[in-house]
Amino acid sequence: MKFLFLTGVVALVGLSACTTVRNARDRIVRAPPACQDVSIPIYFEADAAELTPEGRRVISLQAAEARRCKVERVVVVGLADADGDPAANLELSKARAASVTNALMQAGLPPAEFDLTAAGQAGSVTADGKLQPVRRRADITLKLARK
């Protein structure tokens, strides 16, 4: 009888300890994320510098996250694939970088130093000459720190 009673008490104490550990773990998981640098690609349609609805949504979400932090610097690199004239692709990549920068400011990104670069089609052709449509984008890097 004593054995069964002790077994029951030990089991009950063990289960309550598990619940306490689980609650502590849940509190840790729910802690707000640290202000860390973030890199985000924003994709465009062919021959376009206008943001897609998805691109606007991604920028809006990232700007909202960045408002919790001190934004030290924003780097935006516009890219283009190798389809068409190299000079036109350079201009397109400039327009993509500008489009993303404007959207970041409209979305309420805190004031920061902006560094815009246009890469055009540089590096967009593979060794076998195939195009890389994934280069129809602008890459954003947010350099963040705690306030």
What does this structure look like?
The chain is of the alpha+beta class. The chain has two domains: 1-31; 38-145, 2-Layer Sandwich (60s Ribosomal Protein L30, Chain: A), CATH 3.30.1330.60. The chain is built from three helices and four strands. Strands 1-4-2-3 form a four-stranded mixed sheet. Helix 2 (53-66) crosses helix 3. The longest helix has 28 residues, at 2-29. The protein is elongated.
DSSP E strands, number: 4
Helix segment count?
3
The quaternary organization reads as single chain
User: What form results from the Cα inertia axes?
Assistant: elongated
Describe the structure concisely for a colleague.
The protein has about 150 residues and is an alpha+beta fold. It has three helices and four strands.
Summarize this structure as a short list of keywords or feature phrases.
147 residues; alpha+beta; 2 domains; 43% helix; elongated
